[in-house]
């Protein structure tokens, strides 16, 4: 089949590669000229460390069934068009500009019989109320008569993108049950997971609720963690005790929630309802957004023990991405921490083994003479840091642990003032 | 060993029986004279339908190692004293009157070497800050020198109390690690589950957080359910789709949360901290408490479809207990619904196969001529209700389903207006 994929990010690119390797002729479209140039020169502009991605990308290139373009004309000969553009926020409301632009451009070239598949996460009712009208208007075609719409929200998270793409169950919302056979064929090639067919709206709700569930449960863990700090108990011990019973899944508290999905999808869900205020959802967002501020407060409390203030203190921040072992820094909690540190006129250095330019920071050198280490991301890379070595290099020995990365008792044995989220 | 158990309710009575059957000499103490009279006459005043309870109770009586008393003098010869009294709320704060009274009475008779075990759920820091001082004061004994304190929060829920008592893991908070061997011996006789030793405060936090986790997750499910009603999708389908992936556990939405634990323990937790407001925890409580009101609104919306109001409408409420297949009606959501219906001057009948006097209601007779059926509790007993039969008996055919008990499509096929929580 002829296929176009619009939007070549963390979800769209692996899909493009996979569809090509399945034998389809695929055109990858993106509005970012630099990205397209790189793809055309067989270079991956991101996610270089993702297992399999580079290897399979090269294989796809060699097959000659893959091409990249800034333009949408391939849509006019495509049986399937996937839309995988970013759907970010503007304030707390969905910013559908990329999505609408992609849909509009797609509709201009839309031919009869084509199935448009929205893989971007969207607010419930977006497909029915916003995208179908756009697609019908510019194409002069009629939904379920001349063309079809599906919503198959992507479920990809950094680290092992390909494993997720090819193993996870997919929820497939369709405008008409008529397209079930063809989408079954396509997606059962992509994934060995279950394919669950439903309505467009139910697929939208399932995806946004899924990530809201995670956000709410992380926020609850953070709320409990902060209570534990006040009560003088260790949240991680509490968590182990509770989660011994399989029905409980108290999530991991931490320095904040980032990425393209979890901080955003709850707002997509909330924006879709008027009568319901989704108070837990909104409260959870506020709590998770406040965690970098809480980390800063833990640093200030640690410094207060020795009569110091954050101003003129040499801080080292470990981790800039939003998740361990990844270069993805979208909505990273460290960005918020950095903003706050600047407001406090603090002196700080950032290190991250995956994120440029912080991968250039000499870790040993910045630790030497530092007053306070703030661990924001649990990169495996940091496992090589030995408490004894750090202690010998630092000026004042303070660790603020946003990810329960260091052992508190060991840190204290090595002379550190240690404060972790939920374990002070 | 000689043992006293103070407080003979859903948790204390099975414990008393179990300890007796393990070979200990047990005195069960309760302030309720009627209850003690019944026990002394070999009668179970509650939970008669609990599997094994009656049988094992009789076995214990025959052993002659069990006795019941209104007085506390058995404490003076007891190696172990268990306190299992109710710890309810007064407003949103813990009402420790029964707990303090039991502890005080216990301390008056406390002998050297005794271990006091608090099985009642208490607000974090209650043991350290409130109970140890009470026990030390009246006894003139010193904690960890003359006597010891443990907090082993009960984990019992109605239905299969004995299975839970004898299988579940127990968290054991101790005032001193010295009592670990004896408590290991005692509790490994009671349960085959793990025994996890920790501090008194950590045991208090683990228990209250465990139930708060459930309350928050039910409230989130309710929040999503109400959004689904607005969006016209079925929460139960969404839930199935999300929970296919094992890391997700979207809970069941419904007509409200009752019982002695879940509506209360979040407030115990919240009362223990000052700096943290526990916003998610408090919001969750408000949402779950509002669900009977929401059920009433669903009834009103259903009636509005045919131009009727709730006043002068014949309602039948199915279920008065707080949970299916149980007689336990503590904090039952139906109680709140009833209060609201009275305010609306609605005409209603209540049926419950387990709760007196509603077990005397003739189900068939009250359904005949009724205008609206509100299912509040998913008793298996109601499975015998066939939609076709109900339809033929009712005057106006409306079902408001608080527990996803009836099949919506089948109900509609049988001519019902059907509105379920999260599926309207």
Describe the fold and architecture:
Two copies of one chain form a homodimer. Chain A is of the alpha/beta class. Chain A folds into three domains: 2-198, Rossmann fold; 207-288, N-(1-d-carboxylethyl)-l-norvaline Dehydrogenase, domain 2 (Orthogonal Bundle), CATH 1.10.1040.10; 290-420, NAD(P)-binding Rossmann-like Domain (Rossmann fold), CATH 3.40.50.720. Chain A contains 16 helices and 15 strands. Chain A has helices spanning 12-21, 33-40, 53-63, 97-109, 126-139, 161-167, 180-190, 200-231, 235-243, 265-271, 279-289, 291-305, 333-343, 363-367, 387-393, 408-413; strands spanning 2-6, 25-29, 66-69, 80-83, 89-90, 93-94, 115-118, 148-151, 170-174, 195-199, 314-318, 347-351, 372-375, 398-401, 417-420. In chain A, strands 3-2-1-4-7-8-9-10 form an eight-stranded mixed beta sheet, sandwiched between helices. A five-stranded parallel beta sheet of chain A has the order 12-11-13-14-15. The first copy, chain A, has a two-stranded antiparallel sheet with strand order 5-6. In chain A, helix 16 (408-413) links the parallel strand 14 (398-401) and strand 15. In chain A, helix 1 crosses helix 3, helix 4 (97-109) packs parallel to helix 5 and helix 8 (200-231) crosses helix 11. The model of chain A has no long low-confidence stretch (mean pLDDT 96).
